Amino acid sequence: MTPDAHIVRPSDGLKNVRYEIRGRLARRAHELARLGYEIVSLNIGNPGLFGFRTPETMRLAMIENLGESEAYCHQKGIFPAREAVVMQQQARGIEGLSAEEVFIGNGVSELIDLVLRALLNDGDEVLVPSPDYPLWTAAVNLNRGRAVHYPCRPENGFVPDPEEVAALVTRRTRAIVVINPNNPTGAVYPRAVLERLARLAEERSLVVFSDEIYDQILYEDAEFVPIATLARDTLCATLSGLSKVYRACGYRCGWVSFSGKLRTAGEYLSGVELLASLRLCSNVPAQWAVQTALGGHQSIRELTVPGGRLYESRRAIVEQIEASAFLRLHAPRGAMYAFVEVDAGKLPGFDDQQFGLDLLEQKHVLVAPGVSFNVPYRNHFRVTNLPDAATLKLVFTRIEELLAAYANGAQPGQHGRIVELPSRAG
């Protein structure tokens, strides 16, 4: 028997699955933090880690209904939560929707897996934006499909060209994913672009999966248009949840609502319900917060206007990059991220992953390299604008120092020992 005969190997299905946002760099950041180094973590949009609080009314709604939360609920979720989603969607102009077409899940992440698993057969193709939130690509691959990336080019403000998208459709294409407002770029898609994507989906009988988790996080004059108001002659699945707008990531509560051409989707929706039934139900206490969240005061708006914390943090990022000798940015119009470009003309051979490692080891700042988001280029990185403006100014000072060192001849990965910074302890 060979020495490696007893090695437990992972499934071959994981070969094309990546989630670098919580990958090698994040693990190294954890190691450094355990050694006492102060790490500024900008790799994940996790509001609770930066002092944002879930609205008190949502916490009270859960507490008051804990006695009703000890049993399994219906596999689709509790009725008040589903009905609240219906009312929100109807107020936005989405027709033909009832609570029967709404499923509550353990965050949008679980629902992405469920809706794709119920749809895909071996080799089915799904159009996914590039850059994307990498769970979409991973979930397509895990569920026997093939992710076909349509470009959202930097020179076009990360807005897709519907003609380029249409050219990628084949007889195996089953669905198109739209992430709007976009993670990682902060792009908010114009109505005209969404209309053309909706017509494409209708003409080619594609299911539309619209990830709208950042739907109310908008800056300046950005307008959010739900694609479900436009895609009416095909099946449209709208996904959202409590994590971002309501700063409740840990509640793990999301939803998907189906609209459009429902009469031809009965078997598919039964498949989604079957999968929902197999996991019994989603987290019940958090579901009681949905009605209060969607029907109550929308405090996110106070954070995204001038003087609001998210707005001012975004402004700090924009101003720091405008002053940089090496960085460029299409200012995010929504969400809670900036997808920053490094000028490859000034730094030939720049590699985003090596930069991310150097920035962590030398400057104790954790970012997500652009390649994490399924792009073919290597000169971008993503940061979140959740920290306060002062912290972000410090971060970009450190980034500029590292890039200046590159420009002056310092070799990536060869910057000497880790710089000593104050410990968390004390």
What structural keywords apply?
alpha/beta; Aspartate Aminotransferase, domain 1; 34% helix; Aspartate Aminotransferase, domain 2; four-stranded antiparallel beta sheet; single chain; seven-stranded mixed beta sheet; 13 helices
Q: Can you summarize this structure?
A:
The protein is of the alpha/beta class. 34% of the residues lie in helices and 14% in strands.
Description:
The chain is of the alpha/beta class and 426 residues long. It has 2 domains: 12-52 and 302-407, Aspartate Aminotransferase, domain 1 (Alpha-Beta Complex), CATH 3.90.1150; 65-295, Aspartate Aminotransferase, domain 2 (3-Layer(aba) Sandwich). The chain is built from 13 helices and 13 strands. The protein has helices at residues 24-34, 56-64, 79-91, 107-117, 134-142, 162-166, 191-203, 266-278, 284-295, 300-303, 309-322, 352-363, 389-407; strands at residues 40-41, 102-105, 125-130, 146-151, 173-179, 207-211, 235-241, 254-260, 327-328, 337-342, 365-366, 368-369, 380-384. A 7-stranded mixed beta sheet has the order 2-8-7-6-5-3-4, with helices on both faces. The chain has a 4-stranded antiparallel beta sheet with strand order 9-10-13-12. It has a two-stranded parallel ribbon with strand order 1-11. A hairpin with an 8-residue loop joins strand 9 and strand 10 (337-342). The protein is globular and about 65 Å long. The N and C termini lie far apart (53 Å). The model is unreliable at 415-426 (pLDDT under 50).
